[in-house]
Write a structure and sequence with these properties.
Distance between the termini: 46 Å
Order of helices and strands: HHH
Largest sheet: none
Helix content: 25-40%
Radius of gyration: 19 Å
Shape: elongated
Number of helices: 3
Number of domains: 2
Number of strands: 0
Length: 81
């Protein structure tokens, strides 16, 4: 029999303390799973984050929005190197 329970916080420890046999977690790298002796069995969903703005903000604050987008891209590019 399967029971589903909502757990918040450090869900990766749940299997190690006998609270769960398996977990479903949102991860970016999977490092915390590995550190807790867990392994990924299946990817359920891939997602992405987007930067969105309305037309008025794009018109009035395009320089600021482009600067923010540049900084975000720079962080990701820096992590890849």
């Amino acid at each position: 029999m399967v029971s589903i329970h909502l757990i918040s916080g450090s869900v990766e420890i749940a299997p190690n303390i006998g609270l769960a046999d398996a977990i479903c977690d949102l991860v970016s790298s999977g490092n915390t799973l590995f550190k807790n002796g867990l392994e990924e069995k299946e990817i359920l969903l891939k997602s992405e984050a987007v930067l969105a703005a309305n037309k008025k903000s794009l018109a009035e604050k395009s320089v600021l929005i482009e600067e923010l987008a540049f900084r975000i891209r720079s962080v990701f590019e820096g992590k890849e190197k």
